[in-house]
TrEMBL record:
<keyword id="KW-0732">Signal</keyword>
<protein>
    <submittedName>
        <fullName>L-asparaginase</fullName>
    </submittedName>
</protein>
<dbReference type="InterPro" id="IPR032710">
    <property type="entry name" value="NTF2-like_dom_sf"/>
</dbReference>
<feature type="signal peptide">
    <location>
        <begin position="1"/>
        <end position="19"/>
    </location>
</feature>
């Protein structure tokens, strides 16, 4: 009887350790995604394309959607929007909150993320202030 109890306890312990190991990896991957999103925030606010070039896949046919428009290729997004828009604004604040990360697939190498978005800026050209709230969807693939 004691043998059965010990074996049962060992099995329970091994399964809980395995599950905790997977959760630990998921938490690590989730934090990496949140760090990438923080880099995107930094890039937009500072007109710096480096975080985009570091983490976005760029391939023939790639399209990047922002504010309802689309850019063909990563270079178009960075050189026509990220970098010049900083110079057109007195200030810019971008905030992502309520970030939900969802992993899918056998190896959890695909994630989709939904976040609340708050954008505030003041245009240099005419002094117009923008204050927009909405939602953002991100798609991630671990490579």
């Amino acid at each position: 009887m004691i043998k059965i109890i010990v074996i049962s306890l060992l099995l329970i312990l091994s399964f809980s350790t395995l599950a905790d190991g997977e959760q630990g990896q998921t938490n690590k991957d989730k934090q990496e995604i949140i760090d990438i999103i923080s880099g995107i925030k930094y890039g937009w606010e500072n007109g710096d394309g480096t975080p985009f070039r570091k983490t976005f896949l760029d391939f023939k046919g790639a399209r990047y959607i922002e504010s309802g428009g689309q850019n063909k290729g990563l270079d178009s997004l960075v050189t026509h929007h990220v970098e010049p828009e900083k110079g057109a604004m007195e200030y810019m604040m971008l905030d992502f909150s309520a970030i939900e990360v969802h992993f899918e697939g056998e190896n959890k190498h695909f994630a989709w993320v939904i976040a609340d978005t708050h954008f505030k800026a003041k245009l240099k050209k005419n002094g117009r202030e923008l204050d927009k709230k909405g939602h953002q969807t991100f798609l991630f693939r671990k490579i």
